[in-house]
């Protein structure tokens, strides 16, 4: 059995939910003002989602090694 703290699980859920939100609301780069947050465009939203997924996998793998 692998134990992960409730705080870590909540952090991962928050991070992944934000990534989902950014992906759902992203627009083409040409439709986004230059001063808009990076996550408003497809490239920025997908980069954020990639980081969130990598972080989740890394966290899960590290917890597997600790057990």
List its traits.
mainly alpha, 67 residues
Fold and architecture overview:
The structure is a single chain. The chain has 67 residues and is an all-alpha fold. The chain is 67% helix and 0% strand. It has one domain. It contains two helices and no strands. The N and C termini lie close together (7 Å).
Structural class: mainly alpha
Strand content: under 5%
When the domains are counted, the total is 1
Rg, rounded, reads: 15 Å
Bin the helical content: 55-70%
Averaging pLDDT over every residue, what do you get? 96
Largest sheet: none
Discrete helix count: 2
Short account of what is shown:
This protein has helices at residues 6-25, 42-66. By secondary structure, it is mostly helical. The model has no long low-confidence stretch (mean pLDDT 96).
Helix-strand blueprint:
Blueprint: H1 6-25, H2 42-66
Helix pairs in contact: 1-2
